[in-house]
Design goal:
Bound molecules: zinc ion
Number of helices: 13
Helix content: 40-55%
Shape: globular
Largest sheet: 8 strands, parallel, barrel
CATH superfamily: Aldolase class I
Number of strands: 10
Number of domains: 1
Strand content: 5-15%
Radius of gyration: 27 Å
Order of helices and strands: HHHEEEHEHEHEHEHHEHEHHEH
CATH architecture: Alpha-Beta Barrel
CATH topology: TIM Barrel
Length: 384
């Protein structure tokens, strides 16, 4: 609406709102309304008269809408809250381990005996969810089939059982992959030529997912990127009668790149040969990501994940567009976290400000769940 149209519209409304004689109780309020309109008219008129430069649409005036601090908060379409955060945990097979991970400042590889002391204060501050990664360190823990992934005594299954007992309210997500457990470090079972055997890999990955769900995971999150694994996992959950109580979160759009470096350091999952480019998406592959997201929704995923996060805001937005009725999660990966820490340490910017800006950008793109190493800090910084 143009400025002059608005003024004439107000004039019209004023002249058409005469009080009805039969409704005296309305007269006062109508008069009040009219006097507001008159004041509005005169102020617009005086604005015009003093030639304050307002040209074009009145909707160009935005500042008033967010000048007050509370009004600024109300602008947030997706406000960061504690319940959106999932905190990654690296659990080793040495029960008393507590080793800082140099490339991930503040993060540690933990033995099972260290989990309750770490999580108790975080839960008191409002931690709602964790995602478990197994980090087997024993020399015998790795083989070509990733046999240790669903070892009932292994770190993930033992961790799930322990945490379910100790913290019944904590939502437990189990990352599902073989790369931490395979001798070659790839995310599945290989053919003799070193390429992925998709059929065997999917069969194995879905067995592992089922074992984690049966051990108490509220959510299983396959990160392996083998074709068809969402459907296979969903079918096994259905066959076992537990599909109704397990969330299936798919790492649907997982892009290859250097940002996983610190994680591989933490999880000890660097491939011994080759790389993961044949199954992780190429960084420019937006169309592929959209196809993978669509496929995983059709195969029964309950949540779609995009990884990394900040570099792929367009894909997060695509995921929200394709999966309108599904929550979208984004993994703010180790490299994103390490970069923010390094820049803050170098005095380039403030850690808290950048952590907020980065994470809120991810939410704005369409995610409503963020897997973040900043979770302990956000529990301090956020009120709710
Ligand atoms: Zn993997």
């Amino acid at each position: 609406m143009s400025f002059s149209t608005l003024v004439s519209d107000l004039t019209y409304r004023d002249s058409t709102h005469s009080p009805r004689p039969s409704a005296p109780s309305h007269t006062a309020s109508t008069n009040t309304a009219r006097s507001h309109l008159s004041r509005a008219q005169s102020s617009y008129a005086s604005t015009a008269a003093t030639s304050v430069s307002i040209s074009g649409s009145i909707s160009s005036q935005l500042h008033g809408g967010y000048s007050h601090p509370l009004a600024r908060q109300w602008q947030a379409e997706r406000q960061l809250t504690k319940s959106m955060l999932i905190y990654p945990l690296f659990i080793t097979d040495n029960p008393d381990e507590c080793t800082p991970i140099p490339s991930l400042p503040g993060q540690k590889r933990l033995g099972i005996n260290k989990l309750i002391p770490l999580l108790t204060p975080l839960i008191a501050k409002g931690l709602k969810s964790v995602i478990l990664f197994g980090v087997p360190l024993a020399p015998t823990a790795k083989d070509a089939l990733g046999t240790a992934a669903d070892d009932p005594l292994g770190p993930v299954i033992a961790g799930l059982r322990l945490l379910r007992r100790a913290f019944p309210q904590l939502f437990l997500v189990a990352d599902v992959c073989l790369c931490e457990y395979t001798s070659h470090g790839h995310c599945g079972i290989l053919h003799d030529d070193g390429s992925l055997n998709n059929t065997l890999s999917v069969d194995r990955i879905s067995d592992v997912a089922l074992a984690y769900a049966e051990a108490g995971a509220h959510c299983v999150a396959p990160s392996d990127m083998n074709d068809g694994r969402i459907r296979a996992i969903k079918l096994k959950l259905i066959e076992s009668g537990i599909a109704h109580r397990v969330v299936l979160m798919s790492y649907s759009a997982k892009f290859s790149g250097c940002l996983y470096g610190p994680f591989r350091d933490a999880a000890g999952s660097v491939p011994s040969f080759g790389d993961r480019r044949c199954y992780q998406l190429p960084p420019g592959g937006r169309g592929l990501a959209r196809r993978a997201i669509r496929r995983d929704i059709e195969e029964g995923a309950d949540i779609i994940m995009v990884k990394p996060a900040s570099q792929y805001l367009d894909i997060i937005s695509d995921a929200k567009d394709i999966g309108k009725d599904l929550p979208v999660a984004a993994y703010q990966v180790s490299g994103e976290y390490a970069m923010i820490h390094a820049a803050a340490k170098a005095g380039v910017f403030d850690l808290k400000t950048m952590a907020f800006e980065s994470t809120e950008g991810i939410l704005r793109a369409g995610a409503s769940i963020v897997v973040s190493y900043f979770t302990p800090e956000f529990l301090e910084w956020l009120d709710t």
